[in-house]
Amino acid sequence: MIPFLGKFIHAVDEKGRTNVPSKFRDILKHEKTQHLILIKGLDGCLFLLPLAGWTRFEERLEQEHFQSDAEARHFERELLDEGDVLIPDAQGRIQIPKELRAFAHIDAQALFLGMRNRIEVWSADVYASYKENARRQSSKTLEELASSYWRRRT
Known about the structure:
The chain is an alpha+beta fold. It has helices at residues 22-28, 51-63, 70-80, 98-104, 124-137, 142-153; strands at residues 4-11, 17-19, 36-40, 46-50, 84-86, 93-95, 109-116, 118-122. The strands form 2 sheets. The protein has a 6-stranded antiparallel beta sheet, sandwiched between helices.
């Protein structure tokens, strides 16, 4: 799969419709289906996943044994309770449900951030605040962050 990369800002109309960035739509053309899954994300954003990415995400949820852990079930319900299945229209627009827009504080604009196998959808203001807070909380350089990240993965 071609990774989703880059950052794009698109207008959101009063009905919650916004365009999926054309660069991402070009990648989605290679998917078997145009269905997209939109759920609450972490850090104040939404996760937008192609169906193949959702399937991998769902498999991970299944591995976590949610049925036997009350806190895990609560996490799953919080994550999915307002999720939606979307299909972009002929103009490449999706409609973000009102509840998900409220969760992510998305008003007149949506910031789309490519994160390899998923797209994050943010309020531009919330994303800027998140980035600033992350920089303040960590004095590490990109190289130091990368070193910590890769060590955890091996």
